[in-house]
């Protein structure tokens, strides 16, 4: 099924349901993300927000519903998953850099193995993206020699090396010491300014205000509210959203 | 005690002993390499999603780990000719030790693979890499690193156990020592020297393996 001709939707989730055993973690999720759109996804822990973005590149299987990325349907058993993953980059809470490879090699591996890029070309592109996240001077180091913030910027560069059309961020600053949060958020803001489509699971509401076109609040597996940041923060429509914002903003 | 110690015949036979040392090193190092390779295949079968493959691997590993290595050596050398597979002593020795080493290596390496955080594999998936590439380029090295000391002990044990293959006339150190014993009757001197040589070989092998480890696993971790 090809839908790319019909709209500029990058991601479309229709009636998505997911269970972990008896636990219903995603309930009838409908979500459409336009090309170039920046979405911030928030909600209490266990609300299903990480699970939702992990379904988009099939790190999690869905049991019901449909997901389209760039018009290609991701089947429930992961048909087209490899195809879709080429278009979707992901940044993890724990960075997940490969410890036995240098920063540069981390950025080259998938280019070489998936895109079959030549060594020279892969290196050039890796260095370009490392420069973009201001960490090119650390290219020869190993992940364990870098700070958390530096590692996360490398992880962003590694994902960008695959020329993704969409970037998924799964709580990218939650594992960082406070003084390193800003360098990562600044990197993400500059990506947003370049117009890449992104979905970001985060509680960094300053970031949401700065770059989000839409803020989505989830609770207990459901999308409760979805609004532009000004409306979302100043006048949330739902009681649960107000309670949540009260908890995370009141300190 | 009126026994007179005389090491002279033992030392005089040093070219024979040296040949034995070479035989021991040749057979055990080949068995380590083949055994590790085969062990990784069994490990992948053991961890695969297919129940058939898993059963075969588990059955194999249990069979090997619960029977004496000497019986395995005898089976390969004396038993297999019945089904038309006739091997020289050295070939039978290498095959039996490879099969033995593979079962232990499979379990050790499995422990290493299980120690890899799922996030590593997810990162590979998210980058669009295929499962085989993920294991080859992302999982393998840190997994082996995690269990390298255990793997080294197993290799040293294999080298020591290789003395058993003298019983099928594989020409290694113990085989030559026995020959020397039957010629000179200097049993005490011969087997004492033999023990010292094995001790030295263990030390050398241990040093070589740890050097390999230092080169191959030189990347820093927290």
TrEMBL record, chain A:
Name-wise, this protein is Amino acid ABC transporter ATP-binding protein, PAAT family
Listed InterPro entries: AAA+_ATPase, ABC_ATPase_HisP-typ, ABC_transporter-like_ATP-bd, ABC_transporter-like_CS, MetN_ABC_transporter-like, P-loop_NTPase
Query: What Gene3D superfamilies does the database record attribute to this sequence?
Result: P-loop containing nucleotide triphosphate hydrolases (3.40.50.300)
Family, per entry: Belongs to the ABC transporter superfamily.
Q: Source species, please?
A: Roseibium suaedae
Q: Does the keyword Transport apply?
A: yes
Q: Which UniProt keywords apply?
A: ATP-binding, Nucleotide-binding, Transport
GO MF: ABC-type amino acid transporter activity; ATP binding; ATP hydrolysis activity
Q: Does the keyword Nucleotide-binding apply?
A: yes
Superkingdom in the source lineage = Bacteria
Where does the ABC transporter domain start and stop, copy by copy?
11-245
TrEMBL record, chain B:
Q: How does it sit in the membrane?
A: Multi-pass membrane protein
Give the signal peptide, or none: none
Q: Which biological process annotations from GO are given for this protein? A: amino acid transport
Indicate where this protein resides in the cell: Cell inner membrane; Cell membrane
Q: Which InterPro entries match?
A: AA_ABC_transptr_permease_3TM, ArtM/GltK/GlnP/TcyL/YhdX-like, MetI-like, MetI-like_sf
Query: What are the residue boundaries of the ABC transmembrane type-1 domain, all occurrences included?
Result: 21-209
- GO CC terms: ATP-binding cassette (ABC) transporter complex
Q: Spell out the Pfam families in the cross-references.
A: BPD_transp_1
> Gene3D superfamilies given for it?
MetI-like (1.10.3720.10)
GO terms, molecular function: transmembrane transporter activity
Mind listing the UniProt keywords for this protein, alphabetically? Answer: Cell membrane, Membrane, Transmembrane, Transmembrane helix, Transport
List residues traversing the bilayer: 20-42, 63-85, 190-217
**PANTHER family referenced in this protein's UniProt entry, alphabetically:** ABC TRANSPORTER PERMEASE PROTEIN, MEMBRANE COMPONENT OF AMINO ACID ABC TRANSPORTER
Family according to the record: Belongs to the binding-protein-dependent transport system permease family. HisMQ subfamily.
Q: What is this protein called?
A: Amino acid ABC transporter membrane protein 1, PAAT family
Q: What is the lineage of its organism?
A: Bacteria, Pseudomonadati, Pseudomonadota, Alphaproteobacteria, Hyphomicrobiales
């Amino acid at each position: 099924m090809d839908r790319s001709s019909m709209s500029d939707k990058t991601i479309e989730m229709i009636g998505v349901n997911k269970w972990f055993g008896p636990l219903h973690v995603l309930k009838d999720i409908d979500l459409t993300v336009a090309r170039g759109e920046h979405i911030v996804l928030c909600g209490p822990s266990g609300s299903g927000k990480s699970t939702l973005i992990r379904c988009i590149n099939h790190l999690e299987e869905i049991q019901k519903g449909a997901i389209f990325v760039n018009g290609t349907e991701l089947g429930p058993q992961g048909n087209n998953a490899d195809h879709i993953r080429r278009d979707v980059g992901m940044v993890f809470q724990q960075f997940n850099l490969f410890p036995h490879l240098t920063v540069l090699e981390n950025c080259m591996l998938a280019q070489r193995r998936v895109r079959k890029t030549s060594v020279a070309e892969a290196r050039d592109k890796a260095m370009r993206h490392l420069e973009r996240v201001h960490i090119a001077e650390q290219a020869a180091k190993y992940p364990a020699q870098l700070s958390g913030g530096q590692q996360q910027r490398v992880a962003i560069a590694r994902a960008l090396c695959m020329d993704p059309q969409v970037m998924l961020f799964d709580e990218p600053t939650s594992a960082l010491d406070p003084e390193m949060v800003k360098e990562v958020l600044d990197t993400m803001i500059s990506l947003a300014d370049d117009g890449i489509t992104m979905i970001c699971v985060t509680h960094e509401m300053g970031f949401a205000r700065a770059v989000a076109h839409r803020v989505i609040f989830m609770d207990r597996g459901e999308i409760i509210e979805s609004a532009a940041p000004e409306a979302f923060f100043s006048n949330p429509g739902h009681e649960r959203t107000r309670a949540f914002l009260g908890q995370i903003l009141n300190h | 005690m009126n026994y007179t110690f005389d090491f002279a015949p033992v030392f005089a036979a040093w070219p024979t002993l040296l040949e034995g040392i070479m035989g021991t090193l040749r057979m055990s190092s080949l068995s380590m390499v083949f055994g590790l390779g085969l062990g990784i295949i069994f490990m992948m079968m053991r961890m695969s999603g297919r129940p058939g493959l898993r059963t075969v691997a588990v059955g194999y590993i249990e069979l090997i780990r619960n029977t004496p290595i000497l019986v395995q050596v005898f089976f390969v050398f004396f038993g297999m000719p019945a089904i038309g597979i006739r091997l020289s002593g050295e070939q039978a020795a290498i095959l039996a030790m490879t099969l033995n080493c593979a079962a232990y290596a499979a379990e050790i390496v499995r422990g290493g693979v299980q120690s890899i955080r799922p996030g590593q594999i997810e990162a590979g998936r998210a980058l669009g890499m295929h499962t085989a590439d993920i294991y080859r380029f992302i999982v393998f090295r840190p997994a082996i690193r995690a269990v390298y000391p255990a793997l080294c002990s197993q290799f040293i044990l294999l080298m020591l156990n290789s003395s058993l293959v003298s019983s099928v006339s594989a020409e290694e150190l113990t085989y030559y020592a026995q020959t020397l014993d039957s010629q000179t009757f200097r049993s005490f001197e011969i087997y004492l020297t033999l023990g010292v040589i094995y001790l030295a070989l263990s030390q050398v092998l241990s040093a070589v393996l740890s050097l390999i480890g230092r080169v191959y696993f030189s990347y820093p971790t927290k």
